[in-house]
Amino acid sequence: MDQEKNVNQSDDVHDIENEGLLDGKEIERCRSEVSDKNLSYTKPLLVKRTNTTSQIAIVGANVCPIESLDYEIIENELFKQDWRSRKKILIFQYVLLKWAFALFIGLGTGLVGFFNNIAVENIAGFKLLLTSNLMSEDKYFKAFAAYAGCNVGLATAAAALCAFIAPAAAGSGIPEVKAYLNGVDAYSILAPSTLFVKIFGSVLGVSAGFVVGKEGPMVHTGACIANLLGQGGSRKYHLTWKWLRYFKNDRDRRDMITCGAAAGVAAAFRAPVGGVLFALEEAASWWRSALLWRTFFTTAVVAIVLRAFIQYCTTGKCGLFGEGGLIMYDVSSANATYSAPDILAVIFLGIIGGFLGSIYNYFVDKVLRTYSIINERGAVLKILLVITISLLTSCCSFGLPWIAKCMPCPTDLSVSCPTVGKSGNYKSFQCPSGYYNDLASLFLNTNDDAIRNLFSTSTVKEFHISSLFIFFGAVYCLGIITYGIAIPSGLFIPVILAGACYGRLVGRLFESISSLDTGLFALLGAASFLGGTMRMTVSLCIILLELTNDLLLLPLVMLVLLISKTVADNFNKGVYDQILKIKGLPYLEAHAEPYMRHLVARDVVSGPLVTFSGVEKVGNILHALRTTGHNGFPVIDEPPFSEAPELCGVVLRSHLLVLLKGKNFSMDRVVTGDDILQRFAAFDFAKAGSGKGIKLEDLDIKVEEMEMYIDLHPITNASPYTVVETMSLAKAAILFRQLGLRHMCVVPKIQGRPPIVGILTRHDFMPEHILGLYPHINPDK
Description:
mainly alpha, three-stranded mixed beta sheet, 25 helices, 6% strand, elongated, disordered N terminus
């Protein structure tokens, strides 16, 4: 690669053709164009620059509006001075406040989880009761009109919230949280407006009868609550308590958002241990023991809050929200003994789950790419798409039960049959007294109740095999076409529904040789489908056990998860990894790609390089800030400040803006670091929450000040991470990811050359960038 083309890559813009740099206006235009598309399943973007124009093309990675987070500790003179001045009491206050925030995250997420449950049960319950009453009066057309009308109304409200207030709230939210914890700061994914729409849009969407769940959005909700608490105070609302300033950094926000994601799982599934393991296995990219303790504490708080409110609801004061506890789908009453034929049936379930999961992911990928074209055309088409899917779902849910035959009620029941006025296993629908419609019992219920019916034990003949086939086909297809529309929607519940259905089917087929209850087969089917789509093992295993209260089934759940994941991994990636790629979020994997071993660090940096002197002219800094989108600049000391040119460190754009706004300039090119240390504090350079920091337009630099000088030493990170230019790109990628870096300096191997070759950022490790530079490389070798 040409040695003269080495550069510090912009965090904002991926300039793959190296034919020039994007100026500030072009970056803002790029940002606004993608913002107008709401970052909602847009096709991957690539910013290209020619000598005269720049353009956005749908060909590469959507890296235009996306910045990286500063997880690295910026060890400049201001930071060192602040750290030396801290007393033990301040450190104790800081640690205490972290635990207090963990408590508040748990309380907030637990309350939101309870609100979601009670709201969905009451709204959906009212809709289903109205439909049931009209059906009992033989007013079938009115029943369908009421059912479909309620669904469309609720769906339209949810879509309007997403389309007009917070487009980033659409979908599950788990891929966005996963990307943030990987170091990706995508636009508005954790904003307060996103939190508002996520809560109410999820309630409306699930109540509308879509084949979606509220569990995925709860993870996003928990992360949003944590982000809101982790803003480090607010000058606008006069919340500037001194202690809060310690959290004005991305490292502490990352830890709090990890706690929030774990709390979201705990609130959704009432699985506190599963929440901790989910954060460890799937969400977080960096982990340590101190974070494990805080996430465990947070999920414990969630469990206590949920238990207290659920206990309150047993008094009947929560409307249609029925009795229940922390165990959502209790199957512990079933006999969990198993033999060799049962193991064979479980292995078969795992293989089928892996195949079905990979096919499910394939079609979800295709549907999301199709919907992205529709969603790009404006809010009206987004809402129309939601209405169309709502009508289709309503027609399936109301129409397909007419195919099923009425089945006589079992005689040895402890519950009423048919079920009247509440959720249950036996819906009469159009059947006469003493009979029930098994398909209606699945379709005309909330998704949680449908899963509960499928997991029910000691009810082998409750659902006819043909009904299970019909329900599985409908839920499988509806789950695929529903995910990606403009409503908050989770994937867990659709996958559990479909998996439980084919698990029960397998149980019916193997009932002659297997002694396992069909309800336990349903649970194992759900586990196999979850493993085939999500590709998680440990966290899913514990979540399912906490959901169902059956520890005796642990070996079989472990076996079926391992088999389904292994089978599915041979075909494609997990569903969340696919969504990350579709959204263009530059996610760094824990491993390096095989082709990276054929390249070295200098092969992927590009040029020209923009550097500053230790004492730099104000006009030069302003020019660089205006003409580049870089967020980090190497600072090089030259004679007379050093004997030879040497790398002093890296200075951030945000820190330069603060320093320039303070106008601590000098007429002569001299070191004035002591004056800056006295005038500024470390907190003046702390990162503002929600992107409210100083912008270039906020500066008011006069013409005569442009020729003055400013000392950059006090704000320069004097200990940046560096790699030699001949280091394997694979090694550099692993180092970059494991340390959570934003900038990595590439230094020359031979003395006598300039002290820095270039800077690597996250986008330099993206396959689109590397394979664009070297199209002849085989990506699989």
